[in-house]
């Protein structure tokens, strides 16, 4: 595979005419190696009939080099070898540079589409159904306490379960707990666990596992999503092997929905015998799939046949990290994806498309807590108005004024949006820089040191929890008066049993921030999935992800 990359590098620098004149020193410089190693590489390529090489004697003499092999064929062969060996990251990155000047991207895409999707084979007289899926986020951990990425949450939702689940038709439903009670003060919750539920490593679920899982959350120093909810827990105890009592500091109507999230997944108590970092890469849950392999590029799930809610139809799921977006193939391509999250286009006559009832909203907020230009509401109004596509470019203030410097903070996933904002503002006379940091760093002081912050909100079945967490975060960026209003409204929302009234409370906060020019919504788009008609059982979990447990493919 390394020789393939070296050929592509040579072709990129020296390919073109049928025959070229080149020195061995020039080839060594291109390959980044010694004169001797360059000659060794050239001879290997010539032996494979990839090139024709006619050397000239004497250092500095120009030799004849002819490319015989097609660069796209070499790149495609390299891709096949890389993916078959589950090591595709470096190969794909190397190929991307070459693909910019050829049709290689389309060729590779077609082969990738053939590799991914549903595959079936017979092993020991049994049909093994495998689904291969690409993700463009690297997967680091599946420990519920440390996850940051939606892709990690997607995998985690198939490895773990929570006490409570969520159904789009029925709302909150039993999970590991088959029933629960709450006292009249709505601060004391009692959960009754199912019997004989197995973890993937063979241990039977008990109330002590629930106690351990929740205490991990209560005691963590991590800045995690929904921490304001689980930090309200003042006590958790096992009344017996199948009964758990949880006591809250005050009533919180978002507590039960929180228990449906991946953050509240139940882990086995005996994980404490090993390092937490190891558990994140080799977790044991109670979910429909168990993790059997994880590396930088590949995550493999196998069906857990003893799952308490019924065996999944798939036998194996392979999730590969592909560091660039894979566009959708033409619908009449035989080797197309069977399931495509967020498709860019689809032919309705050949593809089925379903909307998961989830939306992604991107927006920018102003940090008015920072002592800077955005403390001026008139300037904020002018600045945010510049983000409207209809706004004509015009510099703020008088011509002799220096451009107002602004820093925009975001995470790598939203870098494109942040750069678009910066470009718009530069057209209107502002001076903008974009700071992109990891999700973990983004939770720290970097936000309070910036002028504008680019956020995203996934509007799914967990929207109330996400909004609550979002507005708590935004409250840190605004002046004390508005912060007090936000926190007061959030306190009322947490105690409000009526979902409609809670939704109205969130709307009041959004309207207040928008009218005060603290918040500007960039856009909102639906989360969709396209799939071939051969796919059956397409349903979605609370985050809008396809639920792999219900997918199946008819035998043909």
TrEMBL record:
<protein>
    <submittedName>
        <fullName>ABC transporter substrate-binding protein</fullName>
    </submittedName>
</protein>
<dbReference type="GO" id="GO:1904680">
    <property type="term" value="F:peptide transmembrane transporter activity"/>
</dbReference>
<dbReference type="Pfam" id="PF12793">
    <property type="entry name" value="SgrR_N"/>
</dbReference>
<feature type="domain" description="Solute-binding protein family 5">
    <location>
        <begin position="172"/>
        <end position="323"/>
    </location>
</feature>
<dbReference type="GO" id="GO:0003677">
    <property type="term" value="F:DNA binding"/>
</dbReference>
<dbReference type="InterPro" id="IPR025370">
    <property type="entry name" value="SgrR_HTH_N"/>
</dbReference>
<keyword id="KW-0238">DNA-binding</keyword>
<dbReference type="InterPro" id="IPR000914">
    <property type="entry name" value="SBP_5_dom"/>
</dbReference>
<feature type="domain" description="Transcriptional regulator SgrR N-terminal HTH">
    <location>
        <begin position="2"/>
        <end position="96"/>
    </location>
</feature>
<dbReference type="Pfam" id="PF00496">
    <property type="entry name" value="SBP_bac_5"/>
</dbReference>
<dbReference type="InterPro" id="IPR039424">
    <property type="entry name" value="SBP_5"/>
</dbReference>
<dbReference type="GO" id="GO:0015833">
    <property type="term" value="P:peptide transport"/>
</dbReference>
